[in-house]
Each structure stands twice: as C-alpha cells, then as structure tokens.
C-alpha cells in the first residue's frame, strides 16, 4: 500500500499527454458527424494508453534511474555571490529530459529555482548557480527534487534526494580574501585603493639597495656607495606592530538597510577586510563591539588565529534597539587599550544633535588614541535631492533631503574641528574608503 502511495505521489502527467488526449476527444466528437472514421478514434485511444504504459515502464523499471547531489561550500559569504552546484547523473539506458528543483532557504524568497537539462545515456552534468545572502545566520537547505521524462514525454517521474543541511552565513570572507590577495601582490589600486606618497620615512630600517631616480637623496648611504662604486640608498619600511582596533556600533542607528544589507553588516564586512589588511601589514588587530552594553572585546594581536577569532565573533553579532552608551565605550577603551592605537569607530549619525550627545566622549577617546569615526552617507536621500521637483510636494521633499545631506557634511566638519578624523562614505564604497584612510595614516606615521 505504501509503495502504491509513493508511486502515485511521484507520478505526474505532462502537457504532451493532455494534448494527445484532447486530440483523441476531438476524434470521438468528429465520429458523430463523420461515421466513416469508424474505429480510428478508439484505435487512437488505445495507442495513447499503450504509450502511457510503455512510458511508465521505462521510467519505473529501475529504482535508481538518476542520481543528484548538491555541491555547496561549508559556509556562505554575506553580500557575495556564492557558487553552488547540483551534480546529476543519468543511469538510464536512454536519453532523458530532467527538471531539477533545489529547495533553497526561505531567506532568499525565491520560488523559481528550476533547472532544466537533457542527459544522454550514462551522462553526468554539474549545474552551477549562485546565491547572494544579505543577512548573517544559519540557512536551511532542503531536499533536491528531480523530475524525469523519457523520450515519449507523456508522464514524469519524480525522484526525491534527501539532502537537508544547514549552512552558516559568515561576514564577507570572500571580499577579505580578494583584498588579501591584492595586498600581497601590491595590486590594491585595481579596486580603488590609492597609493599614498610617504612624507619622510619611519625609523625602521629595511635594507640597502641601489639608488634609482626618485629615491630620497637624503637616504643615500655614502659608506655603501664607496664600497660598491654605485650610488646606494637606505630603504625603510613602515612601522610594524602598531595596534589597530575596529569599534562597531550595534545600536538601532545601524539597523537601517541599503540594498538589502544593514549598516551593521556593511561595518562588519569592512572591519573584517581592514583588520586582515592590517595583519598583512604586520600590525596588531583588535575588535570591540558596543551598544547600550559592552559586547565582544578581542585585544589586539597578530597571531595566525586572530582573524578566525574575529570572524567567529562577528558572525554572531546582531543589532540592538537602544542608543549606544559612549561612556561605557570610553571606559572599555581605557581599560583594554594600554598604548596609543588607531581606533576606527563604525557608527551612523543622521543629525548634528545626535553627534553632540556623543561628542564629549569622542573627544576624550581622541586624547589618548588616534580616533577615526566612520559614518554613512544616506544614498536614498541623495537621490531625492538630485531629482527634479515638479510640484510643491516634490519641492518640499527635495528641500528636506538636501537639508539632511547638508547635516552629514556639518557632522564631518564638527569632528574635524575637534581634531577627530572622519570618513563619510556610501555603504558600497566603505571597504575602499577605510583601507585608503588606514594606508594614508600609516604612510604619514600618525599613530
């Protein structure tokens, strides 16, 4: 009984079968008007019935006519296109048409994940597709369902492959690897990272090398020049083992979404990329998260496991719904960071009054550390301010949008007035802008 239920549950009639039966019905109708058709309608019916039986026999004569399996990474990267694949194998002795449904997590809100392909006898194929998650967390993948049609195409058999699995979505480690490879090969300028001209040099000696035009003539090593007979110059490297901390605001101001991703996720992705570049520059990377109460605290270090430790912490962070306690942040920084460091504070301000509430504590932090405040440009308001107004309501909307955009610039000027560096960035350009500023600070030896 159970086998019979399974048989009916996985058997589907195709459009080709309904078309054939419709033609058969038409034959029977015409028989009333044209008796000379004789037994042709009945003969057509039995031919169709016979083909249905043959088709069912072809599809059901084996229990494993096809095989399918999902190929997925161990974890997905947030806000990146992650490559997945479905391996499918035809074990029939004839060509088949295959339709595949992969039950992807509900977070993607996709109802049309359908792949159609043809397979020759014993052929295998890998069908690739991409998914772009926009929220960290755990994503439940369901089963793979394969719908098979023989060359007759009158019925379809469904195969169900149980492959339920849970994949975690981590902060954007694909972007991190991309910037890491470019930093190692000195090709960061390909993604918009500027080359900063170093003014002077640090005190960390690197090597003695041949002089080339453009080198600082003040660094010429006259003793080495006399020994070699060629102009030799001292080469210096950037100072190492400097402490770089990313402080991430988890309060309600970071809940705002842009292109499906919250500001908190943009800040987390940028922090991960920046701290990875800092480790490649042989600096020490640390992390602090804050809201109305203290979050995660990872002291600065440059051990090989430091980045994985930061990644695991950032994976679990979520926005909260109260305002940030800047006094608590100040006390945390004073208690954790024991030497002058670069502190990059990712937050968001929508008005000057919001900044003024926190400015006293920012000024205190800036007395002991080099503070860089990173906040976001509202791209939607910018679009509204650039649109042409056609009526009174449009003029009012445009004026308000321009006012808020102007407030953002006032916030940056106010921070600069108190000796606090700032970055006003669109969410999309956050990675590039923060890395540029970090390299600029390193080159000018401000830490």
From TrEMBL:
SUPFAM superfamilies (UniProt xref): vWA-like
Alphabetic keyword roster: Membrane, Transmembrane, Transmembrane helix
InterPro entries the UniProt entry points to: DUF58, vWFA_dom_sf
DUF58 domain location: 207-351
Keyword Lyase: no
Transmembrane segments: 12-37, 43-60
Name of the protein this chain belongs to: DUF58 domain-containing protein
